[in-house]
Each structure stands twice: as structure tokens, then as C-alpha cells.
Amino acid sequence: xxxxxxxxxxxxxxxxxxxxxxxxxxxxxxxxxxxxxxxxxxxxxxxxxxxxxxxxxxxxxxxxxxxxxxxxxxxxxxxxxxxxxxxxxxxxxxxxxxxxxxxxxxxxxxxxxxxxxxxxxxxxxxxxxxxxxxxxxxxxxxxxxxxxxxxxxxxxxxxxxxxxxxxxxxxxxxxxxxxxxxxxxxxxxxxxxxxxxxxxxxxxxxxxxxxxxxxxxxxxxxxxxxxxxxxxxxxxxxxxxxxxxxxxxxxxxxxxxxxxxxxxxxxxxxxxxxxxxxxxxxxxxxxxxxxxxxxxxxx
Amino acid sequence: xxxxxxxxxxxxxxxxxxxxxxxxxxxxxxxxxxxxxxxxxxxxxxxxxxxxxxxxxxxxxxxxxxxxxxxxxxxxxxxxxxxxxxxxxxxxxxxxxxxxxxxxxxxxxxxxxxxxxxxxxxxxxxxxxxxxxxxxxxxxxxxxxxxxxxxxxxxxxxxxxxxxxxxxxxxxxxxxxxxxxxxxxxxxxxxxxxxxxxxxxxxxxxxxxxxxxxxxxxxxxxxxxxxxxxxxxxxxxxxxxxxxxxxxxxxxxxxxxxxxxxxxxxxxxxxxxxxxxxxxxxxxxxxxxxxxxxxxxxxxxxxxxxxxxxxxxxxxxxxxxxxxxxxxxxxxxxxxxxxxxxxxxxxxxxxxx
Lengths: 299, 353
Prior knowledge:
The structure holds two protein chains of two kinds. Chain A is 72% helix and 3% strand. Chain A is mainly alpha-helical. Chain A has a single domain (67-294), classed as MetI-like fold (Orthogonal Bundle). In chain A, strand 1 and strand 2 form a beta hairpin. In chain A, helix 3 (67-100) packs parallel to helix 7 (155-181). By secondary structure, chain B is of the alpha+beta class. Chain B folds into two domains: 3-232, Rossmann fold (3-Layer(aba) Sandwich), CATH 3.40.50; 237-352, CATH 2.40.50.140. In chain B, strand 18 and strand 19 (342-345) form a beta hairpin.
């Protein structure tokens, strides 16, 4: 019975196999999403009974006028548009160097990878200690006297450093895998073609690394849209001095769990959803154009 | 550009030397086939030429210029790999343009050259395609154009035909020959396939165990092999050998006496065993038993048995198994010394000296 024609029976058969995952997806992703939309439009409701007595755009209006929300959006955009490229380039640089290391490459890989497998709470506590104003290692190293975690001017930088460091190892590992995947002969031919080291990187390695760059960038975008636990642990349950480290996810948490403003929380969640959609969509379009050569129907 | 390997020794760590006191000259402007079984050192020679390896001792000369310690970029060596190694992210046009782009050649000049070389290797219709959209043969041509556009001192072809099917192989062999003659670039064609080498090359160098066994035209290698290795490697079906002592009683007395002390082995080409009578002068006629015949299109391979020796002939007509008087012709009959050196090549005493 090879290649049976699709019929109602075979379709139902296939559906039966898909059902477990479909049910889970609908139950835990689609339905909550729809509920969030409903909740965000509810201006008067009882969260516990789920009864909504009035609908309107008031929640979104409130967000529009809330300076804290503006700050959260700003920070989240800074993370996705600034920290993501920085972390990708940093990881690429380290991976390229590691790739040239004849010995001990494994050792360094493990070393760089450790932060990724360590719990964020532990990592944040250690960094909290490193960032201490009086006897902190960071201040000791660069001979400054900055109160990293309590000065609103520096606390965001401290958070960014932590996030960069934490994600570095995993990205390096992915880049190394990508670099290993590139056939050595392309670089050999390039060398015979008279390409300098920089030309070899720019015209051969970098374009061939594109699939890896896309993977890492999209992954980093998603991670950086969700920065929360680092803030929570580094600033002991606050969003930093004077909300200086407020991110969208943290804002959502504040509104929902601390202030019980379920409508506002749902609305900010939807804004986050929209942003994720927009930025990953833009990235996707850009990458799609960038990887024409990977597809069979090229041109 | 004449290429000279001068007394080159190269050993990989913890191994016997791959090359020891290796000396070889590749004539300028010719297509030289470097023929040899796998493990004979062909790839090592290519890597030495390309600059991937540096010899432990000895010198590599390009037209009397010592390039032994020059880097890959400086030597200007063009190379076509077995599976072409075309940049997958670049179109055919950009692949061919690559060497010029690296050398910052002006756009107008670049485009003119790309047109010229694309026309030479006949890939003009595919210029805007990506390598993955091309067939193996087309990719091969693109790789040739990319190697040639940098006007290489030497062009290295590393088993360029081994990934192609039989028909395409024949076509591309002729194409490579045509392109080489059109450009006149000194070309080294590495292969383990004797047919490719015999068809394409001006001269063939047979390499075995890191040593040049013989250099010459295909005709010379086939008819006057320098030693047993060459005689066995060139020719299909393979040369049959039997102890000299077994054949000596059947040989003319003068010949048998002359080589009685020096020859240990006789090699017989399949076309040297003939049905009698024949106008061709024969060394001897012997009754042999035909055990089986294989019909391979034009050729008939006859398996023969004579005095406990297995022999092969491709010169017999279809026959029923049985005993037949068969003649052994002098051309295609070789005597070898114990060290493998060829002493006598069927009367053409070329290798005797």
C-alpha cells in the first residue's frame, strides 16, 4: 500500500497521530493567547470568575501614557536591536579565534559554555557580588568606584554585561559547529585564488556561515525579548534602581503579580507579542533575501 | 612554466617518508598526466605544488625560480578539485570572477575576461545560475574557468573526471584537452585511471610508492615499459605473468640462452596470444587449453591453461572450449629481472640498455 490517495479515512488517520500535539498546542498556546486578547480589551472584569462586564481600548490607552511602559519598551528594543548584534558578533569573534586554536579548544569551549548551563539565579548572585561598589572585582579591575547595581546610570549596563556573558558560550558553540560545517577546501581554493585572510573571511566564511548566523540571531532575539530572571535575581526582585532595568517582560510581571492589573498586563503582553512578530518578521524577510543561494528555486 | 621537483624528501610525522629524493620535471606548456594507484603519492605531489605542504629537503622550481617556501597565494597555482569546490553562495559569474575580484581588477576589465573565459569553457548560458543548479560536467567547466582566469603558472587537475558518468567523462576529457591547448597552460592531470591518462596527456608519468616509474607517451609506457610495475599498471586486461623458467623451453634457443641468467619473469599482453596460422612472426606455437570465453562487446577475453599456467588472450575468435595450437608473438612479450626491471620488450630492445 504505497502512496494511498488522500481520502477522508487517511486524513482522519493522520489527524489521530497529530491530535496529542494539536490538543496541547490549542490548550496551552492558542487558547491563552485568545484569552489574553479578551483580557486586554476588558476594562472591568473579575479575574477569578472570568466575568467581563465592560470592553474597550482603555488598557492600551493607559499603556500609551505610562512612562514606565515607555521605558520598558525602550529597554527591550535596546536589548533586541543593540545587545543581539553585539552578542552575535562577540560570539563569532571568539569562535573564530577558538577555531584557530590547535590545542585546548575543548577546554575553552567548556569554559565558555559553563555560564549557559549554570542557573541564572546563581549567575546573577555571582555577578551581583562582582558588581559590588566597595569591594567588587569589576571596580577593582578597571579602577573605578561605580555603584553598578544602585546607580540608575550604570545598572542597565551591568544587566547587559551579564546577559552578554551568559549567552556567549551557547552562541560560540553554535558558531563553532557552523564553522566546522564549512568545507576547508573553499578556503583553500580562495587562498589559491589569491584571497587575503580578510577577503577569505568576508567573501567565503561569512556568507557560508549565514545559516548559523540566522539561527543564532533569531534565538538571541527571542532570548532578549524575554529578559526577566536576570533582572529579578540581580536586583533582588526589583527592576533596578528607579526602574532603570525595566524590561517588557518585567513590566508585565509587575502589573500582573504585584499590582493585580490584569488588563494592563495582558495588553502589554500583546504589545510584546506584536513587537516579537514585527522584529522577527523583519529579520526573516532580510535573511530570506540573504540566503537565496541556499534554495533550489534560486533567483 | 616548467616545473621541477629537485631531490625532494617529505615525511609525515611518525611514518616512513612519502617521498624520498624525488626528482621530476614537468615540461612547459604540456598536459602531463600523473598516473598512479591510490597511495602512490599523487596527492602529496599536488599539495607540494599548491604550497599546502613544504618538503623537508629539496627544492621546487617554477622556471628555475625557487618557490619551495612561497605561500599558496604567491605561487599562482590554479587548482580544480575532484568535486570542484565551487563557492555555493556565488553564481557562476561570481565564481569565475572571484580571483579577479580578490586582485581588485577593474570592473570593465573583469567583465570582459569573464565573458572570454565563460565562452572558452562554454558556460555562458549559465552565468546567472548557482552551482547547485548545474550538472557535474557544467560545474567542472566553471571550476576550470575559475582556475584559468587567474592565468596560473601551473594548472592542477585533481581527479577531475572521477565524479562523472562514462559518457560525460569522454566529453570532458576532450574538453580539457581542447581548453589546455587553447590556453597553453602547463597542466598536471592527476588520475588513477589509465584510460583518462592515455587519452588526454602529452606525456604520462607513472608514480608508484612515491617514485617515478617511467615518464613517456602512452605508447611508450604500453609498448616499452621500464619495469614490471608499469607493465602491470598500463593495459587492460592486466598483463599475465609466468616464471621465465616455465616458458624458456618453448622459446627459441638463442633467446632463452641470452636471458637464462638474468630474467625471472615473463609478461604476456593479452593481444600477443594468437590463433594460428597467422602472418605475424611468432616466438613459439604451443597447444593450449581454452577453458572459457567472456564476451565484452567488441572484445572476447579467452581464459587459457598451459603447463599449469593461467593465460589470457583477447585476440581469439569465438571458439568452443578445447585444445588449440596458439602462437605467442614477440611484440607484447616482456622479460623482467628479479628486481622488476624490464630486460626485453618483444624485440624492440629499447629498455635493454
